[in-house]
Amino acid sequence: MPVSPFEPSAVQASTLTVLHLEDSELDHRLVCRALERDGLQFAITRVDALPDFREKIQQQTFDVILADYRLPGFTALDAWAAMPDDGLRPPFILLSGAIGESAAVAAIQIGISDYLPKDDLKNLVRVIRRAIEIYQAKKAEARAMAELALSERRLAEFAEHLQSTIENERASIAREIHDDIGGSLAAVRLDLSWIARHVDDTETTEHIRAATDMLQHAIGASQRIMMNLRPAILDQGLYPAILWLAESFQRRTGVKTSLRTNNEHMRPEKQLQLTAYRTAQEALTNISKYAQCSEVKLDLSDAENVLTLEISDNGCGIAPAALENSSAFGIRGLKERAKVVGGWLDLSSRQGAGTTIILTIPLDGSGHSTDEAEFL
User: Fold this and answer.
1) pTM of the predicted model, to two decimals?
2) Domain of 329?
3) What per-residue confidence (pLDDT) applies to 6?
4) What kind and span of H or E run contains 270?
């Protein structure tokens, strides 16, 4: 509920709007005198019934609410409960006779700003100032938190857009390699085969054989690049795709690599499959560069409607300073990718004791966009 600006340091320049919940006309006048004594400019409204209180707070914005604790048929706590729960409530001060320490503490615990006995009105303005200062601090904090949440949401949206753009660009490059380079290499291979069939010269045949071997290497490299750019193997399912990554990693590095799963036929949404695939791909790339390990274990599961991918190695581990390095975007990028689909990424590592990365994504569809990337 918004409030009018009231800075304690500029009391003379502001008009303080006050709602006074009080059934005693005499006590109301004493409050007015206490405010006047400090030279405040104020506009005060008195109500003594709960329906009138509800009506006033709906019709008008007040800088502060002063409330007697006990009124005919209700208490200040009932008035507090009747206030709209649509944001930060304005300062609400109990101004009453002796209500007992336990009642005062209970009132403060539910959010009421302060308590002042009626026989201590000389301190009323000080209590009001303090309550408004605290309120303004909370309001500024709430505004900062809202701005931070908005910034984080925009950053997440940008990260999602960036990932989608990157994957679309990868798919486009893969198609060009397949259509242009792949087609040309295939044509060259056919021509070399034709030449080999029509040449009897031994030296020429050796050159053709060498060229064919190099060509086959180029074809294999282009296929590998296309697979990294656009994992068409995902069309066969997540388990076969991760298995292909694991087997390729083992052939390339010589590191013993194993994959375990509870369901070889799992078929999560395509966006989730791609997230898991890219996580495994990035993790294995980092392992090959830095882990210095002799064994890698992968565990893929969709138990309890949660997709979980765990990748662990027995390598040298990651130093804490390396994780906090501002240029270490690999793990940070994986965490952002996981957030895009409503999941999260956990990393645990001890120097000399290996590293474990766990990707967790709920499969109930909560927390992520239902849009599927064009490249899939």
Assistant:
1) 0.53
2) 233-376
3) 39
4) helix 270-286
